[in-house]
Amino acid sequence: MNQISGIITTLNEESNISDAIASLKQVCDEVIVVDSLSSDRTVELAEAAGARVIIQAYLGDGIQKNVALDYVKNRWVLSLDADERLTDEAVAFIRDTDLDAAGFDGYAFRRRNYIGSRWVRCCGWYPDWLVRLFRHDRLRFRETKQHSGIPETNTRRVKVDLLHYSYRCTGDLFAKPGRNFSTRSAKVLYLSGKKVRPWTPFLHGTGAFLSNYFLKGGLLGGVDGFSLTLSKALNSYLKYAKVLEWQRDEKVRKEEDFEKIW
Question: Could you report the per-residue pLDDT of 153-189, keeping only the tens digit for each?
């Protein structure tokens, strides 16, 4: 029997956390939740579901996930986001594989990304390979503040899926880029000292649209493909437009909290 620790990082995930912990407990004998000062019932529900909760102000994506690794008791770690679930096939693979004997340091699974109950496969959304099961004494998340992951070093890609309920509805595609993702990306870019020119937001927004719609198959995804393409283009445009605004407008810049990335 594999001894595996499950980890989840959270911020206001009361609608997801109980199911995420239950999913991990199918193959994990402990679950560690690192919570970023949630203002809802996330911590209460996580503890009720049997997880150990660590409170840590948000440090950035990869850094925050690595905090969880400092508290696990097992060598093997399975990482899920709060809105992700294991499929039956993934559970069977993890249960049936002798991880210590197989010779790999990690395993990458395909992620199915959903809008509502609709599995969307275009725009790079499938197969979305991610290393989620790994030996934490050999692999760790990249110490980056956004879009971190485990490097595919001595890892194996396994053709089983994770479920990712990315967005509740089409409206969320356009709410999240403006509310969270583009601002976080913009802050990281601004703090790195990146200079943005007046034409940069237009170039990146247009480039993201053309790439996702024509090269990554958004054209074949119907309304969902077009909506996802627009969302990605908007996110790219807003990222650079916000950096440009902070460079040009002292009043707006002073009102922004750059200590709070998320």
Answer: 999 999 999 999 989 999 999 886 555 788 989 998 9
Rounded to the nearest 5°, which phi and psi values hold at 54? -110, 130
Lowest mean pLDDT among 186-190, 198-202, 203-207: 186-190
Tokens coding 112: 């199915």
Closest CA to 79 of 36, 135, 125: 135
Length of the chain: 262
Q: Is 50 left (phi over 0), alpha (psi -120 to 50) or beta?
A: left
Whole-prediction pTM:
0.93
Please state the φ and ψ torsions of residue 126, each to the nearest 5 degrees: -160, 135
> Which domains occur in the chain, in start order?
4-167 (3.90.550.10), 170-255 (no CATH)
213 neighbors 226 (Cβ within 8 angstroms): yes
**CA 114/CA 188 separation, integer angstroms:** 27
Selection from 122, 127, 126 nearest residue 227 by Cα:
122
Q: Give the pair of three-digit tokens for residue 180.
A: 């969270």
| pLDDT score of 1 more than 90 | no
